[in-house]
Inverse folding.
C-alpha cells in the first residue's frame, strides 16, 4: 500500500512540475499582470504621446503662429502698400495726365477715359471747345485745327433794302438760296448784316475753323482771321459757285460791329433816298470787303445789291 502511494506521488509530482498548469489560474494571473503591464505601458505611451503631441502641438502652434504672422505681414504689406494705378479712381497716378474720377472722365471732356488730357488731334471732340476732331492735319477735309469749315457766299439775287423787313427777312433769303443750291446745312445760314439793335458779330457763330467759298477757295483761316480782315480770297462766288462782283449791303465794320453814321435803311425796312446804309465791295480782301473806304459810303437806300451769307451750324 505504501509502495502504491509512493508510486502515485512520484507520478503526480512530475505532472505538477512539468505538466500544463490549470488554465484558469494561468489566464487569470497572466491577464492581470499583462493588463497591468499593458495598462502601465499604455499609460506611459499615452503620457509620452501626450507629451510628444503637446510638444508637437506647441511646435505646430508656434509654426502656425509664425506662418500666420508671416501671412499677416504679407497681407498687411499688400493692403498698406502702394495700390496699382487705376484710371478713373480720382487719384492722379504716375503715367496719368489727369483723373477726375469715373463719373467725370469722358471722351468729350477735359479728361478722357484713358486719363489723358483732351488735345486737338486726339480723335475726340472736346464739348464746347472743339467743333470736330478728325485726327489729321488736312486743312481741306471740312475739319481743321478742330474747327469745322463753314461756307460763305454772296447772293446771286440782288435786293432793295426795304424788301428784307428786318434782319430775319435777310436771313431767310440766305437760307432759301442755299437750299436751292443744295448746300449742306442750308437752314443755318445767316446774312452778314447789322442794324441799330444787333451787330453781325453778335448774330454769328465765331468758328475756329476755315471759312471757304462754295468753290473751295479759302476766305479766312478762322473767325478771328476774318474779323482781322486777313482775307485770302474775296467773297465773290455765289451759292452756285458763279463769280458775282458788286456792292453788297452790310451796315457792318470789319470787326463785325455795326457801322455808325447811318440808320441802316430804317433797320432794313425802307427803300428810298431819305435814309442810308453802309456797303462793302466783294472784290476786296481789305476791310473794304464789308465797309468800302469811299466817300460814297454810306449810300441812300434805293439801289439793289446782294448780301453776304454765312453758314452757322
Amino acid at each position: 500500500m505504501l509502495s502504491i502511494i509512493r508510486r502515485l506521488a512520484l507520478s503526480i509530482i512530475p505532472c505538477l512540475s512539468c505538466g500544463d498548469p490549470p488554465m484558469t489560474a494561468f489566464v487569470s494571473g497572466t491577464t492581470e499582470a499583462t493588463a497591468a503591464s499593458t495598462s502601465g505601458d499604455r499609460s506611459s505611451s499615452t503620457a509620452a504621446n501626450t507629451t510628444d503631441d503637446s510638444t508637437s502641438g506647441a511646435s505646430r502652434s508656434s509654426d502656425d503662429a509664425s506662418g500666420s504672422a508671416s501671412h499677416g505681414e504679407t497681407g498687411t504689406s499688400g493692403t498698406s502698400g502702394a495700390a496699382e494705378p487705376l484710371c478713373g479712381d480720382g487719384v492722379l497716378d504716375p503715367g496719368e495726365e489727369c483723373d477726375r474720377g469715373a463719373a467725370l472722365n469722358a471722351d468729350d471732356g477735359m479728361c478722357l477715359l484713358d486719363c489723358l488730357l483732351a488735345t486737338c488731334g486726339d480723335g475726340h471732340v472736346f464739348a464746347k471747345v472743339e467743333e470736330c476732331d478728325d485726327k489729321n492735319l488736312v486743312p481741306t477735309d471740312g475739319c481743321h485745327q478742330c474747327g469745322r469749315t463753314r461756307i460763305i457766299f454772296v447772293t446771286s439775287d440782288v435786293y432793295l433794302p426795304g424788301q428784307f423787313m428786318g434782319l430775319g427777312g435777310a436771313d431767310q433769303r440766305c437760307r432759301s438760296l442755299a437750299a436751292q443750291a443744295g448746300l449742306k446745312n442750308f437752314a443755318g445760314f445767316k446774312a452778314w448784316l447789322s442794324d441799330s439793335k444787333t451787330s453781325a458779330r453778335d448774330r454769328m457763330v465765331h468758328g475756329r475753323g476755315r471759312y471757304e467759298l462754295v468753290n473751295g477757295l479759302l476766305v479766312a483761316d478762322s473767325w478771328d482771321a476774318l474779323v482781322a480782315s486777313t482775307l485770302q480770297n474775296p467773297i465773290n462766288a455765289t451759292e452756285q459757285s458763279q463769280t458775282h462782283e458788286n456792292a453788297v449791303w452790310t451796315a457792318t465794320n470789319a470787326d463785325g460791329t455795326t457801322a455808325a453814321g447811318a440808320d441802316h435803311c430804317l433797320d432794313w425796312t425802307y427803300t428810298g433816298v431819305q435814309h442810308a446804309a453802309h456797303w462793302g465791295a466783294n472784290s476786296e480782301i481789305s476791310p473794304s470787303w464789308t465797309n468800302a473806304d469811299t466817300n460814297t459810303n454810306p449810300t441812300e437806300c434805293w439801289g439793289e445789291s446782294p448780301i453776304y451769307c454765312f453758314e452757322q451750324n
Q: What stands out?
A: The first helix runs from residue 2 to 18. Confidence is low (pLDDT under 50) at residues 1-79. The CA atoms of residues 57 and 63 lie 9 Å apart. The first strand starts at residue 143 and ends at 144.
